[in-house]
Inverse folding.
């Protein structure tokens, strides 16, 4: 087995003290070293094939250099982009991400938090919302810095990084209004999710402001299958009067498109459909989906940035950081046929 190169050897080759090597090779402290010196240290380390000892660094700083990330469903296309943003910010700082997919299960969520706490992660980024009081209590007792992403939770006191759902819903409603739609359906997600509740409430306000008739139907899960099931029931009703469907997520909207085709109808000629999130391949739907683009990767980056601040400086005042969204108009919405 090859001998492990020591930090002292790197320091000798670079002509600096070992503490300078340590600072130069740590992304979090590199700015403390003169740029020319830092480059010399990095060149020396690379020529010797030196790898910093993360475990030793952790012992010195009392940090594990790991962050736990908990998501509700890895098969949901919005989460890989968020994770990419988180890891893209953390990796250059020397952090490793431990990912837990709880598949919408409260029991798995509880277990994941307990496991990550036991592994002594330095903080948690949670995308599930943490609605269970037992989990809120467990997190509080752990003393770990926590940042919520995408979904909030009441009475936790944790920072939340999310998109501007109200802005996105209002833009979607006003777009449908401009096309002559006055009677629309909102396919809401489960009301146990803060995002689903917020978007449904935003629909009520936006439709009221635009004198539009609104009916809200709730899907039991944020899946294509549930979007199709809900739309099946709507289309089977006699004397259908709505001309547009606005779905709380793109997955629900995709289910609605399937149901419309199944009933021999056309989108958007018979019914316009819009979604929310602009998940990957939304433009490849048939037809391409009009939807609200949420800056998912930027949300991941900002959540990681907020967690690093909390780890370094301690908890601050709870904040909700809302990033702007935009409406992307594609072929799934059109002017009402007369």
């Amino acid at each position: 087995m090859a001998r492990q190169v020591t930090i002292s050897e790197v320091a000798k080759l670079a002509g600096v003290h070992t503490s300078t090597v340590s600072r130069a090779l740590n992304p979090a402290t590199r700015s403390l070293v003169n740029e020319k010196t830092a480059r010399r240290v990095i060149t020396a380390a690379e020529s010797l094939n030196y790898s910093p000892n993360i475990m030793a660094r952790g012992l010195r700083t009392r940090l594990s250099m790991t962050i736990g990330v908990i998501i509700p469903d890895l098969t949901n296309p919005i989460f890989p982009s968020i994770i990419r943003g988180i890891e893209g910010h953390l990796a250059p700082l020397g952090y490793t991400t431990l990912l837990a997919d709880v598949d919408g299960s409260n029991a798995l969520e509880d277990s994941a938090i307990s496991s990550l706490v036991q592994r002594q992660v330095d903080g948690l980024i949670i995308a599930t919302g943490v609605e269970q009081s037992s989990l809120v209590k467990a997190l509080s007792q752990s003393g770990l810095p926590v940042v919520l992403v995408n979904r909030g939770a009441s009475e936790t006191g944790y920072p939340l990084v999310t998109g501007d759902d109200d802005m996105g819903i209002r833009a979607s409603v006003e777009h449908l209004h401009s096309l002559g739609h006055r009677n629309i359906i909102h396919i809401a997600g489960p009301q146990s999710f803060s995002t689903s509740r917020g978007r449904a409430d935003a629909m009520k306000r936006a439709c009221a402001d635009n004198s539009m008739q609104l009916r809200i139907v709730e899907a039991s899960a944020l899946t294509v299958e549930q979007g199709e099931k809900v739309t099946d029931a709507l289309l089977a009703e006699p004397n259908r009067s709505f001309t547009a469907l606005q779905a709380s997520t793109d997955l629900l909207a995709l289910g609605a498109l399937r149901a419309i085709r199944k009933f021999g109808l056309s989108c958007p000629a018979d019914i316009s459909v819009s979604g929310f999130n602009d998940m990957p391949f939304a433009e490849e739907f048939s037809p391409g989906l009009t939807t609200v683009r949420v800056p998912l990767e930027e949300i991941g980056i900002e959540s990681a940035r907020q967690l690093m601040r909390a780890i370094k400086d301690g908890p601050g005042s709870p904040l909700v950081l809302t990033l702007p969204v935009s409406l992307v108009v594609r072929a799934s919405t059109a002017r009402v046929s007369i």
Notes: DSSP finds twelve helices and twelve strands in the chain.
